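XRE family transcriptional regulator, pasting as requested.
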Amino acid sequence: MRDDFPDLARRALRDAGYSMKAAAREMHYDPAYLSRVLNGKQRPSENLAHALDSLVGAGGALAGTLLGEDDAERVARSAENPSRLDAGTVDALAGVLAAYRRLDDTAPPRSVIPATMTQMREVTRMLKEARGPQRDRLSDVASEWVQFAGWLFAQTREYKDGVRLLNDAVELADETGNGTLAAQALNFKGYIARQQGRPQGIARWFGAAANTPGAHPAQRIGDYLQSAAGLAELGDADAALRTVEQAEKLMDKAAALPPPATAYWLTPSFNRLNMGLATLALGRYSEAADHLRTGLAGLPEELRDAPWSWEHKDALRRAVEAA
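C-alpha cells follow.
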C-alpha cells in the first residue's frame, strides 16, 4: 500500500505557509533530509513526523497517517495477497483512516482528497480479492473510506462525485449490515442537498438516515432534526415539529452511550447545532440563536474552524439578525 505521508505533509506545509527550507529551519532538521522525505525517497523518522505535525498544527492527525514499520510491512503483504488478509492489517487500515478523518478537521478538504482517493482505491481493490474471517471487517473499513472520500467531495462542492461515492458507501455498508455506516453516508447526501438548497432532498435523505436500521441514537437525533429543517423549509411545520419530537425522545438514550467511533463528533453539544438548524427553519429565531451559539461554543478547539462549521456560523448570524 502506498505511503501518502509525503503528499499530505507537502500540502500541509504549503497550506500553513511554509517553504521546505523554512520548515527545515523551524524544526532544526537538515533540508536535504526533509527534501528526501517530502519527495517520497526516504521514510521519515517518528520524530520528524511528529515535528511536521506540530509545525502545521495537525494535532497528531498528520503523524497518525504514517504507519509504523511493522504495520507497513504487514499491510504490504496483505496488499500483495489479499486472500491472506489478517486482523492486524484491518486494524492498521482502520487506524490510518481515523487519522485521515481527524486531519479533515484541520486541513482544507482539497488538500486531503488526492491521498484519500489513493488509499480508498487500494482498500477497495484489496476487498475484491479478500477472503476469510476478516473480510467483513475490511468491508466496513472500505465503506468508511469511500464514505469519507464522498464527504470530502461534498465539502469542495463536487457534488456529482460526492453522491456517486456515497451511494457506493451505502452499498458496501449494506453488505455487512452496518447501519451506522449506511446512516452516515445517507446523512452526507442530506448535507449535499442542503448545500444545493434542495429542501425536499434535505427532508428525504436525513429522514432515510434517521430510519436506517442499526443507526446509533446520536445519529438518529441529528438526522431527525436536520430532516425537520427540510420539512419546515417545505412549509410543513406540523410534520417538522413531529420530527423534532422524535429526536427529543432519543436524547436520554443517546446521552447514555458514547458516540459511534465512525461519527466521533456526535456529542450532545454537537446536536445543539442540528437543533439550531431545525428551529431556525421553523422561524424560532431566538431559540435557534441559543442552540447554535451553545453548539458552536461546545465544539472541541480543533473543530471550531473546520470548513463544515461555517454554515452553522452563518446560520447563527441569520438567527441573530431575525430575532
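Note for the archive: The radius of gyration is 21 Å.
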